[in-house]
Every structure is written in C-alpha cells, then in structure tokens.
Amino acid sequence: IRVRPLTCTETRRGDQQVVHSLGDGAVHVSAARHDATFGFSAVFDAGASQEAVFEGSGMRQLVELAIDGFSCTVFAFGQTGSGKTYTLMGPFAQSGTQPASPALLGLMQRSFTCLLEQSRSRGSDLALSASYLEIYNEQIRDLLSPGPPCTLPLRWSKTRGFYVENQLSVEFESLEAVVSLLLQGSQRRRTSAHALNRHSSRSHALLTIHIRSRAAGACPSKQGTLCFVDLAGSERVKETGSSGELSLEANSINRSLLALGHCISLLAKPRGKRTHIPYRDSKLTRLLARSLGGSGITLMVACISPSSRCLSETLSTLHYASRARRVTTRP
After folding, report:
1. CA 191 – CA 17 distance, rounded (Å)
2. Pairing outcome for strands 154-157 and 126-136
3. Yes or no: is domain 2-92+105-192+203-239+259-325 CATH 1.10.132.30?
4. How far apart are alpha carbons 261 and 265 in whole angstroms?
C-alpha cells in the first residue's frame, strides 16, 4: 500500500487525514463511523521515497525472477489522482530532453537499471525487447508503432493463452533506449484533466519487457517477462465533474476495473470452492489472466489518498487489495 501526501488543494480545503500507517504492514483508517485496520506485506506512508518503495516492495526480487525465466507482473491500482503513475514512472512532466531527478524516478526506471545491472553482473547474454500498449474504451492500441495508434485484435491460442496480434516489440540494449521507449509511449497515452486530477490516465497501459537468455552450450534458453500495468483510476463521475466523452471513458474504465475485481474475488476463494473465473468479461482481465491466476508472480501496489473526502474510495481500494493478497498462484 502506498499512501500519498495530502495535496495543497486538500489542505486548503481543510480535509482531515484519515489514513495512518501503524508500521509492520498495518494501515489504520479512522473517521466518523469508520474505524478499521488492514494488514499488508508493506505500507509506505507519505514520507516514503521512491527508492524505499522499490526496495521495500519486493520489486528487485521480481526483476531477478524475470531474468530466471518467470512471468512477473507489477500493477498499480487505486482511485484517480492517488499516485499510481507517479509510483510507476515518476513525475508527469519528463521527457528525453527534460529527464526527472534521479531521486524521483519510479519503479519502472529503477527496474530497468536493476535488470541491466543484473545482466552484466551475471555475465548472462540476454536478448531484451519491449512492447507497450493501452486499453482505451475496450480497444487495444499499440503505443510504440509509428503513426497514429492503431487498434489491434486480441486472440487466444492453446499454447500462448490470450495475446495481442501484430504488436510491435522493439529490441534494446541500454538504459537510455528503454527509457526513451517508455517516454515515447507514455506521451501517446490518452490523458485528460478533470476535477480530481490534471493528468488523469484515461486508459490502462501495459509495458512488457521480454527477457530471453541466450543459452550457453547445452543449457536450455530461458524466457521471462516483466510486465508493468498502470491501471486507469477508478472514479465517481459526480466527484470528477466529467461529462460527454470523459463520462463515457469513466464508465468504460470502471466496467473493466469491476471485471478485474470480480476475477480477484473469485481467485481469493480456496481452490476447492472456486467457480469459473470470468476472464473474458473484459480485455484487461484477458490480458492479465496469466498474471492473476496462472503461473506468474504478481506484485500489486495499491495507491490511496489520506484525505477524508476520498474515504469511500480509499476503503474500496483497501478491501480490493486485501482480496488480491489472498490470491495464490503456482509459479
């Protein structure tokens, strides 16, 4: 769990801080008619640095497992404006000519650095490539292909499961090259301004790093993936003041997050009591099927606001994350 600081607007408005970290992975919510404590693997309060989140969340282990051939996923979930994109990428206003301060870099850039360092220290010969797509209004669009983002079909096969057809995968060898791909794709993502967030992501974005170790001698080659999922924020249209196209986008976002929540709820049940998991209910759950209930290793970073005004969304996110914590996979 990551608790962002109160914003200047919230402080000026006189919002109360209702979320408090108790240490040892416990977070306490205290407000009128609400008094609850939740337990997680780790809780990062408003003072936690980007580096502390990287080291304390298990992200470094995830990178190492991906190099070892596992399918690894990290996704950021939470209300719009709760700090998901900042946690994954760092400040919004960064580009190739205006890089962010090293202390503010998010989980993605730190993972790329760690991946390349691990590759060099192990002396392993890795082939690295990246693909980047967004799901906008239930359409899948490639963020790396030249020209305007084109819609791609989602297919299913017995060997690969769900996959995106004709998705561009770009090879890279240096940190500069992969960060350039990240920024290039992020600038093409759909964002809009509304009452809760000036740079609200209007799509779910999935950046996948494909890691193939070239075999030495008789050793079999390993293929791992490291997938970063920046989910669009759950939002109440009344709170954001959205109308027209923004309102349609919000409904599409909320529908896919509801489908994701439904799959997580069913996966959290003991194996003997599970019924059919409805991955086909949305494009998002189809693409995350392997990460959620298959053979992958998944980290979920739930971002919340400490403001009293966001209490209901904060509680909703904490319950959602508690269910996700009970899901077990078999990597």
Report:
1. 28
2. unpaired
3. no
4. 6
3-state DSSP call for residue 83? Answer: coil
**Which segments are annotated as binding site for ATP?**
78-85
3-class SS of residue 111 = helix
The token pair that represents 179 in the structure block: 């960060």
Long-range contacts of 99-103 (CB under 8 A, 24+ apart): 103/49, 103/50, 103/51
Angle at CA of residue 90, ends 74 and 303, nearest 5°: 50
User: 1 with 26: CB under 8 angstroms?
Assistant: no
Per-10-residue mean pLDDT, the chain, length 331? 94 93 93 90 95 96 94 91 91 72 94 92 84 92 87 91 93 93 86 49 88 74 92 64 64 88 90 85 91 87 94 93 90 86
Cα gap 208→226, rounded to integer Å: 6
Q: Which residues are annotated as a binding site?
A: 78-85
